[in-house]
Amino acid sequence: MKATVTWLEGMRFEGLSESGHKITLDGTNPGQGASPMEAVLLGAGGCSAIDVVSILEKSRQAITGCVVELSATRAEQAPRVFTDINMHFVVTGTELSEKHVARAISLSMEKYCSVMKMLDKALSATSSYEIHPA
């Protein structure tokens, strides 16, 4: 996998993935794009959400929506790494099995989400969920 990050102006950069997708990164707060740490947090949430939806679909669960609400704490001093992340999944569907939802989240957090597997060596990761009818 390859990517490039190009300086645009100030503290604003454009990331370009090997597959041709762009993301604006901005080191000012607030800026015109996500900060690099926000991008890491979004990557973790996106990775896990993909897993959860995929696992539930393979389990023949009638999932119609999945939102991951992320919260993270950063160290007080530089480098201001994440010290913990919580992912709260709001899963919507018809007659979703709580057992299947809990299992999908657990599998993602502990086995399949490559972003979380990298991060869990450096921080405490927790998850929670709620199920809403479609």
From TrEMBL:
Query: Gene3D superfamilies this protein is in?
Result: 2.20.25.10, 3.30.300.20
Question: The organism sits in which domain of life?
Answer: Bacteria
Q: Which Pfam families match?
A: OsmC
This protein is called Osmotically inducible protein OsmC
Q: Which organism is it from?
A: Oceanisphaera avium
